[in-house]
């Protein structure tokens, strides 16, 4: 999401770190580059001006300029300013302090991911917060919109309001709340209609629904990929109906990130949740300090650990680790490892949480580390016999042809996988031989196989 901005800021700050003493001209030049990087990332101009002014004021103090590490001090100031810009430290939770059934109103333009987000939110509230959730579609404009939400409700394992033809959005909303009261639901998620662009009819409709339901939350769903358009949408909805929180979708895309940095300043409403991918589980809290860390190349190890804890089978992971350390790691075990990595989401998203990954970005992009590769490797292993997976040395030319044909790949792909597995086996044996003390003394370089590891 923030790759371009992160790469540019990392370059600026690497120069600052390497200079030792700084003068006002050094800071001014760095801030000029930060300003250009933010504008290029589609951050709203007024937001950029306020941000740079705040950083300049703090960085100009004698305490910073006379510091032993002034470069590090400036980076910390930028980090703190970014956290403030994104909404302050800590995620802002949904407001669920209201009498049941609590109405949550979902608003936004058509195509922003609003209906999918409604399904994701219902799953999250039911699974994580143990709430009884009812989903209701108020979208009478888009063909099959109500059926789409009903299908998402089924996938999420929550009920949806039965469809009654001919009702207005306000009538549907009132019936949903009545059903919520009668049937003991804790929360009613109301998915309103969208439009391709902002118009008075849309705003009037949302305003009428809001007045009829008095929602505890009015969540604006915006597509982070649309940049300044997302900011303009947020401003329009906030002025017309009032927004209590924002959900940014497609945060795993290759957008420049300006929308996330502008939202709080433009609307006054915090970004509360982010969506990435189509899976119903892919809805997360928005942590400003963690996002700032990713932008500045400092990583987000906390989120990575949380994601791993949610998706990885701990017992299976420990078993795999023990096998690796003993040098008894097979292709069958490797297939299990690929499956666990896949469950964690996009590889670019995972790698973006690692500190300092920005410097390796070009190398990693060229390494073709994507889900297509992982799925292809899993297919190759799946086309092997059990004996071949446990003793890959027996895989010669005729077997390779059979495996390639069975997995829809080429013999070259099979060879690459086997080479990669051999390199991993060598690394594991060296790790076992070195032990913890040896590894600390010689570093990770001691684990590298003699030949270059092939990732692509």
What is the gist of this entry?
The protein is α/β, with parallel strands linked by helices and 456 residues long.
Description of the molecule:
The protein is of the alpha/beta class and 456 residues long. The chain has three domains: 3-86, SRP54, nucleotide-binding domain (Four Helix Bundle (Hemerythrin (Met), subunit A), Up-down Bundle); 102-298, P-loop containing nucleotide triphosphate hydrolases (Rossmann fold), CATH 3.40.50.300; 304-447, 434 Repressor (Amino-terminal Domain) (Orthogonal Bundle), CATH 1.10.260.30. The protein is built from 21 helices and seven strands. It has a seven-stranded mixed beta sheet, sandwiched between helices. Helix 11 links the parallel strand 5 (245-249) and strand 6. Helix 6 packs parallel to helix 7 (145-156), helix 18 (371-382) crosses helix 20 and helix 20 (397-407) crosses helix 21 (411-442). The longest helix is centred in the last third of the chain and has 32 residues, at 411-442. It starts with a helix and ends in a 14-residue tail after the last helix.
């Amino acid at each position: 999401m923030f790759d371009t901005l992160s790469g540019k800021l990392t370059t600026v700050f690497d120069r600052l770190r390497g200079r030792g003493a700084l003068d006002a001209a050094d800071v001014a030049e760095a801030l000029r580059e930060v300003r250009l990087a933010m504008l290029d990332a589609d951050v709203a101009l007024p937001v950029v001006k306020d941000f740079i002014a705040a950083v300049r004021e703090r960085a100009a103090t004698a305490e910073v300029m006379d510091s032993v590490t002034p470069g590090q001090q400036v980076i910390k100031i930028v980090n703190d300013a970014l956290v403030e810009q994104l909404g302050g430290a800590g995620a802002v939770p949904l407001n669920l302090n209201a009498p049941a059934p609590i109405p949550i109103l979902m608003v936004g333009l058509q195509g922003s991911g609003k209906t999918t987000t409604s399904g994701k939110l219902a799953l999250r509230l039911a699974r994580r917060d143990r709430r009884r959730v009812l989903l209701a579609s108020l979208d009478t404009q888009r063909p099959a919109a109500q059926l789409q939400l009903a299908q998402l409700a089924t996938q999420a394992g929550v009920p949806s309001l039965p469809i009654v033809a001919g009702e207005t959005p306000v009538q549907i909303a009132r019936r949903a709340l009545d059903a919520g009261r009668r049937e003991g639901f804790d929360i009613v998620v109301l998915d309103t209609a969208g439009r391709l662009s902002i118009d008075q009819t849309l705003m009037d409709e949302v305003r009428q629904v809001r007045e009829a339901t008095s929602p505890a939350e009015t969540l604006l769903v915006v597509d982070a990929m649309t940049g300044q358009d997302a900011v303009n949408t947020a401003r329009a909805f906030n002025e017309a109906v009032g927004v209590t929180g924002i959900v940014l979708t497609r945060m795993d895309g290759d957008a420049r990130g300006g929308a996330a940095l502008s939202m709080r300043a433009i609307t006054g409403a915090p970004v509360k949740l982010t969506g990435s991918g189509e899976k119903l589980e892919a809805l997360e809290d928005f942590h400003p300090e963690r996002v700032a860390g990713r932008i500045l190349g400092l990583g987000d190890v906390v989120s990575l650990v949380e994601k791993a804890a949610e998706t990885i089978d701990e017992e299976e992971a420990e078993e795999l680790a023990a096998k690796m350390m003993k040098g008894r790691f097979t292709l069958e075990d490797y297939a299990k490892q690929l499956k666990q990595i896949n469950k964690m989401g996009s590889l670019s998203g995972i790698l973006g949480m690692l500190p300092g990954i920005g410097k390796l970005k070009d190398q990693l992009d060229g390494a073709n580390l994507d889900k297509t590769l992982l799925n292809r490797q899993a297919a190759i292993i799946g086309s092997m016999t059990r004996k071949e997976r446990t003793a890959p040395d027996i895989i010669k030319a005729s077997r390779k042809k059979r495996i390639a044909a069975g997995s829809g790949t080429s013999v070259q792909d099979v060879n690459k996988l086997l080479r990669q597995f051999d390199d991993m086996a060598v690394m594991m044996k060296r790790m076992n031989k070195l032990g913890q003390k040896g590894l600390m003394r010689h570093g990770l370089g001691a684990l590298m196989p003699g030949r270059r590891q092939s990732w692509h």
